[in-house]
Design brief:
The chain is mainly beta. It is 4% helix and 48% strand.
C-alpha cells in the first residue's frame, strides 16, 4: 500500500484523474473527519523538530470535486479555512475544535474558480491553480492572487461567500518564468505583510533551478523586484509558502523518490534573508518522512492562537486518487516566534 501510494505521487501530477464534470456553481458539502496522530507508533509524542503537534484529521467528502488541495489560507481565529485545488476548485469550511485540538470541519462549501468570461474554468491547461495569497479581506470574502501552472499566470481574484471571480487583472510574470515546465510552475506565492518589502509578492517555482542548482524565485512588485533563489537542500521541491508578520515566510517543501517514498520539510525564512539576488537558506523547523503520518503535503497557512502561539496548518493534495489522502494538520511554533499578520488572514 505504501509503495502504491508512493507511485501515485509521481504518476498523478502528470495524469491526475481530475473531475470530468466541472462544478457550475458553489454548493454545500459534508466533510467527514477521522482524527490522526503524527507518529502512529507513538501517539503520545508531540514534539517534532522545532514544532509541537496540535492534531490532525483525515478528511472525506460526498463530492467528486473534493480533493486536490494545493494552497491554503486561514483566518486569525484559526477557524475559517479557504483552499484551492489543481482542478480550479475552491473549498471553504469551519474547523471545529475540542479545546485546541481539531475535531472536524463543518459549514463546508465548494465551488469553481471563474474565468474572465464569468464561466467555470474547464480546460486542464487553464484551471491548474497551485498558489494563493490574500491581498485583502479574509477566507470568507476578499481578494486573492492565484497562481496557475500549465498556462503560467498570476490572476487577481475577488471572492465572496458563494463566488470566486471572475478575475479582475493579473500580475506581470517576471523574466525567467518562460523557463518554467508546464507541470512545474509558480507553486508558492505570498505577500509580505511588513518590513522594508511590505506588499511585495514572493513567488517560488516548484523545482526550476538556476545554474548552481538552487530553486528559482522572484520578488514581484514592491521597491526591489527581481530574482532570488532558495538553497535546494536534499532534492526537495517547493509546494507552498505563508507570510509571517516580521516580513518573513514559512516554506513547505516535498521530496519523492521511488526508493524512499515521500518526505516533507518546513523552513522558516527571516525577513533579513529576503533580498533581490539573495541565496536563501532559512531555518528548518521540521523534516518528516512517511514513517510519520504525512501524504503529498501541498498547502500551508498560519495564524496566532489565543495563547500567542503561531499555529501552522497544513493540507495535502490527494490528486483525486484513492491511494492518497486529504490530511489537515496543525503544529505550533514555540512562544516567541513570529506570528501571521492578521491583516493578511482575517
Amino acid at each position: 500500500m505504501i509503495v502504491a501510494a508512493a507511485l501515485s505521487l509521481v504518476v498523478a501530477p502528470a495524469f491526475a484523474d481530475k473531475p470530468a464534470d466541472v462544478l457550475g456553481a458553489a454548493k454545500p458539502i459534508k466533510i467527514t473527519a477521522i482524527p490522526i496522530d503524527f507518529d502512529r507508533d507513538n501517539p503520545e509524542r508531540k514534539e517534532f523538530g522545532k514544532l509541537i503537534w496540535r492534531g490532525g484529521l483525515n478528511l472525506f467528502a460526498n463530492s467528486p470535486s473534493f480533493g486536490g488541495c494545493s494552497a491554503l489560507t486561514i483566518g486569525p481565529s484559526g477557524k475559517t479555512i479557504l483552499a484551492v485545488s489543481d482542478a480550479g476548485i475552491w473549498l471553504r469550511g469551519t474547523i471545529d475544535y475540542d479545546g485546541r485540538k481539531m475535531k472536524g470541519v463543518s459549514n463546508a462549501v465548494i465551488g469553481p474558480l471563474l474565468g474572465a468570461d464569468g464561466k467555470p474554468l474547464r480546460d486542464d491547461q487553464e484551471r491548474d491553480s497551485e498558489g494563493m495569497t490574500l491581498i485583502d479581506g479574509g477566507p470568507a470574502a476578499g481578494t486573492a492572487y492565484i497562481s496557475f501552472e500549465r498556462h503560467h499566470r498570476i490572476l487577481t481574484y475577488p471572492f465572496a461567500a458563494q463566488k470566486f471571480g471572475p478575475p479582475t487583472g493579473s500580475l506581470p510574470l517576471p523574466p525567467g518564468t518562460k523557463r518554467l515546465h508546464p507541470n512545474s510552475g509558480l507553486e508558492a506565492i505570498a505577500i509580505l505583510p511588513s518590513g522594508a518589502l511590505k506588499g511585495t509578492v514572493v513567488a517560488f517555482s516548484e523545482n526550476l533551478t538556476d545554474n548552481t542548482g538552487n530553486l528559482q524565485g522572484w520578488l514581484i512588485g514592491g521597491p526591489t523586484p527581481g530574482p532570488l533563489t532558495l538553497k535546494r537542500i536534499g532534492g526537495f521541491d517547493v509546494t507552498d509558502a505563508a507570510p509571517l508578520p516580521d516580513g518573513g515566510l514559512v516554506v513547505l517543501e516535498r521530496r519523492f523518490r521511488y526508493s524512499e517514498g515521500i518526505k516533507m520539510r518546513i523552513r522558516r525564512i527571516k525577513a533579513s534573508e529576503i533580498k533581490r539576488g539573495a541565496l536563501i537558506t532559512g531555518e528548518t523547523l521540521l523534516k518528516a518522512t512517511d514513517a510519520l503520518n504525512i501524504d503529498n503535503m501541498e498547502g500551508i497557512a498560519a495564524h496566532r492562537s489565543p495563547s500567542g502561539e503561531t499555529i501552522l496548518t497544513l493540507i495535502s493534495d490527494d490528486n483525486f486518487s484513492a491511494l492518497e489522502r486529504t490530511l489537515l494538520m496543525q503544529f505550533a511554533m514555540p512562544d516567541g516566534k513570529p506570528v501571521l499578520a492578521e491583516s493578511r488572514a482575517r
